[in-house]
Write a structure and sequence with these properties.
The chain is of the alpha/beta class and 281 residues long. It is 41% helix and 23% strand. The longest helix is centred in the C-terminal third of the chain and has 36 residues.
């Protein structure tokens, strides 16, 4: 019933609108460090991560003949990255927010490039960054168009950089974009959309999406997503196709129409029998 009255569909980017098959584009080391060492340290940090970006870093390292080491201790900081201890050194691997949280200076770095930037720091000093890119799912533009045809506003909520988010949103046909969001920020933006438009559906797949999936009027998770996301969702899209979002809404609207027709028919029959009964038939 709620799905049939949705006014806005908010989606995550990675793994929902995009394939989530991140590919390492380049490694940029600082202060005399070489690319091999930088990639090795990042892969060691991410070896236990369940995030698609973490997987892509480890995969890239293995393809370059690097065997990542298991750190003595790891801590996953939601929406930011990984903090690890390796050979007595503190390693950080994540986005700009992670660097800011641990007071790592990035003042001398260039502006964000088109892609996902993963920064690395060792013992309180930035040692370089990796640039990773993702690709849009082929059916995403048609999925967004179908949502618009239902009179519903599509929006994208992502933790990625604004340039990357805007590029993906433009290719998909989405005008409402909110970038650089932590999990709690996504929930706050969802509440703003609810106040502006009405009932909100959120579509995501990551463990970071679990709070906003639970907070949405209707939460939809991709079937290949994290277990926490699937548990928090009301709807699971088993084949991961974003076009099924519009299909689910259409099914809901058709079901509501049938329910209303049945109620009207039942009440009409009762009124007819009361009238007939009043005249003795």
């Amino acid at each position: 019933e709620t799905l049939g009255s949705v006014s806005v569909v908010c989606t995550d980017k990675t793994g929902t609108l995009t394939k989530g098959n991140f590919v390492l584009q380049k490694a940029v080391p600082f202060d005399g460090l070489d690319e091999h060492t930088l990639l090795s340290l990042c892969a060691s940090c991410e070896i236990t991560s369940t995030h698609p970006i973490g997987h892509s870093i480890v995969t890239a390292a293995v393809e370059y003949g690097i065997t990542p080491k298991h750190p003595e201790k790891t801590e996953e900081i939601a929406g930011c990255g990984i903090r690890a201890s390796l050979n007595g050194e503190e390693l950080l691997c994540g986005n700009r927010k992670l660097m800011k949280q641990f007071h790592i200076s990035l003042n001398d770095l260039p502006l964000p490039e088109l892609g996902v930037e993963v920064f690395a720091a060792r013992n309180g000093k930035c040692i370089g960054y990796l640039l990773i890119s993702d690709t849009l799912k082929e059916e995403t533009p048609s999925a967004i168009q179908k949502i618009k045809e239902l009179g519903i506003t599509p929006a994208m909520l992502t933790g990625d950089a604004e340039d990357t988010a805007n590029a993906i949103a433009e290719a998909a046909g989405i005008e409402e974009v909110r970038a650089r969001l932590l999990p709690q920020d996504k929930l706050n933006e969802l509440i703003r959309f609810r106040n502006q438009y009405g009932a909100v559906m959120f579509v995501g797949d990551g463990i970071n999406d679990a709070p906003v999936l639970a907070g949405a009027d209707v939460g939809a998770a991709m079937g290949s997503g994290a277990d926490a996301a699937i548990e928090a969702a009301d709807v699971v899209i088993m084949d991961d196709k974003p076009t099924k979002v519009a299909t689910a809404i259409k099914i809901a609207k058709q079901t509501l129409t049938i329910v209303k027709e049945n109620i009207a028919f039942a009440l009409g029959i009762k009124v007819l029998f009361l009238i007939l009964g009043a005249f003795g038939f």
